[in-house]
Structures are given as structure tokens and as C-alpha cells.
Amino acid sequence: MIRNASSALIPLREAANLLSGEAAPVAPVTVALAAALGRISAGAVVAGSDVPVGLTAMRDGFAVDAASVGGASAYAPIFLGRPPPWVEAGQPLPSGTDAVLPPEGFVDGMVVADIAPREGVCGAGDDVAGSERLIEAGTRIEPLHLLVLEATGLKALDVRQPLLRVVTAGASSLDTVSPLLRRLIARAGGTTEAVRAQGVRDIVEAIRGGTADAVLVVGGSGFGRSDQSAAALAIAGEVRAHGIAMRPGETTAVGSAAGRPVLLVPGRPEAALAAFLALGRPLVARLAGAQDRLPRRHVLVRKIVSSIGLSEIVFVRSGPDGVEPLGGAGLPLRRLVQADGIIVVEPESEGFRAGEEAEVWAL
After folding, report:
1. Per-residue pLDDT for 5 more than 50?
2. pLDDT score of 172
């Protein structure tokens, strides 16, 4: 619904349900493993075989049968008729050997150091056991995931990567907010396409166009004479809520068009960021089938004062003694850039005391 500036605000939780409630995970696609970084795994990944497949050297040295040379020392050397085979770290051990003697342990045809079975050796399946679950569905693929997947010989992975059309509304030539939101979408596991639109007709076409899974319109969500995003959404599809009981970001709107969710966020950086973190990022997660993000509890080093009836988005900075509130609405860029998390103060709360714990959502 389109509202004017004096209409009642929609609670944040209700707005989130109106935006994302009907969204479903997008279809999986298969990508090369190198392209899976940052994407969301569409299913569980199970190891196809042991890693390593057999006894493998963990250091450079001589491969020996420990039982044959056990107890050797410089005072009681064991003579070998021929030098034992040399192996490099990572190489499989030759048949009949089960340990790797350090280089200094074999001198002038003699073993001069004691060694135990499996010393200097990685056994079959020690790194990864065959049929072991390595990744659960909904996992964001990080560099360490790629390490283990590459070790198992996997070449490709099924992922979900929702595409969001990011529409920059308005005539301003300097747009720093849309690039920020595109980067955050990528961090959440999505991909983006950028479109600029000026005027109602252009914004309508931008909302309706393309094959993206959702649309994010940046700017023009307010009630001023030049704010046209909500009017354009009403023509392109449906405005489900315009005006959210959230600060910053009160002029945020949610709706749908062409069968896909549409989120309109204000153009001011801290308001756009707050609206995206509270509404846009959960939408991306749902489309990607990602596992739920969970906040962590941290101690506040300063109090937070909030107004009853509004969900306050407070940007915070982590420190050795806890988290420091930086502010919310009207936060200047020089302070916003210091933020590494947010606290969502519920509408029925008046805030938090210094020394009290609060749930912090990482940026």
C-alpha cells in the first residue's frame, strides 16, 4: 500500500514477512570449484574416498619398516644392505614401509635413530574419511572449504546464487550506496546486475525488466516531490508496505512485481545499509537457501537509548572490552566506516544499559 508521511508505520517483522515470506530458494546451478567461493552450497557434500588413500609421508626422509630398524641409535646402529627409498612430504610410502626416518637418521649405510611405526606418516583417511560429510546444505563456501574439497578431487559444486537487480533511482551522478549494497549482496552469496533509472517510467521498466530473482531499488523511497520509487512500484506491481517502524530507514518500502520481491531503500548511506541488513540480507539468504545467520552476545561499553515503538538499528564497533555504539540515524560516513556490526533494538525496548549484553549481528 502507498502511504503518506503521516500514515502508521509497519512493524519491521511484518515488513520482513511481507517481503520474504513467499520467497523460495532459487534452482541450483553447477559451477567449477574455483567459482564457488562465496556461493551457497545447494546440498551436502560427501567425500568420495579416503584422503590420503594410503600411508603418506608427512616429511622428507627415508621410508622404512619401523619394526626392522626399531631401537637403533648412534651407539647401536643397524646396518642396511642398501639405502632405504627416499620420499618427499606428500608422497605415498612404498610397499613394505610404514614410517619416515629423518635424513639424519641414516648415515653411511646405517640407521642411527630409533623410529616407531607410523612416525612421520599420515594414514589412509587421516585427513578425510571416505563418505564423511564435508559441507552441509546452505553453507557459504569459504577458502578452507575449497581446501578440503580440492583435496578430495572435487571439480565442481552445486550452488544457489540468486541474482538481484539493483536499480539506482534518481539523477545524481555520484552513487556510492548502490556499489556498497552490491558488494554486500555478493558477500551474502548473491550476484547482481546494475541498472540506472530516472523518472517513474524508467523505474517501472527497471523493476519489471530482466530475469533477476529479486529487485532492490536504491533512492527515491521517501515522500518528497522528487521521490518516485514507490509510485513506480505501484505501477510495476504491488506496494505491500511503505513506511517501516525502523530507524534509520523509515521510508523503506516492500512489495512485489513480475512475481519477484522488490525492496525500496532510502538513498542515505546509513539508512540504506540499515534497511538492507534488516530486510535485504535475509531475503538474499532465503533465495540462496543459506543457513541462518546467528548473532553473538557482546557487552556494551556505553548505553543505548531507544524510542518505544520503533526498531532501532544501531551500528557498533567491537573493542577489547565489548562493543561501542556508534549511532544510527544521521550517522556520518566517518563514523559509519568504523562499524563492524549492528544491534537491533526491539520496538518494545527502551535500549540497553552500559555493561549489559546485547545481540550483535556482524556486517
Report:
1. no
2. 67
All 3 cell numbers of residue 254? 516492500
What letter represents residue 35's amino acid? A
Cα 312 to Cα 306: distance, rounded to the nearest angstrom: 7
Q: Are 238 and 262 in contact (CB under 8 A)?
A: no
- The string of pLDDT tens digits covering residues 133-149 is 999 999 999 999 999 99
Q: Which residues contact 74 (CB under 8 A, 6 or more apart)?
A: 112, 113
Task: Note whether 257 and 208 are within 8 A (CB).
Answer: yes
| Cell (9 digits) for 43 | 546440498
CA distance from start to end of the chain: 30
Q: Does 3 have pLDDT greater than 60?
A: no
Q: Quote the cell numbers at residue 24.
A: 523460495
Q: How far apart are CA 127 and CA 228, in angstroms?
A: 57
Phi, psi (rounded to 5 degrees) for 41: -65, 130
Q: What pTM was computed for the model?
A: 0.87
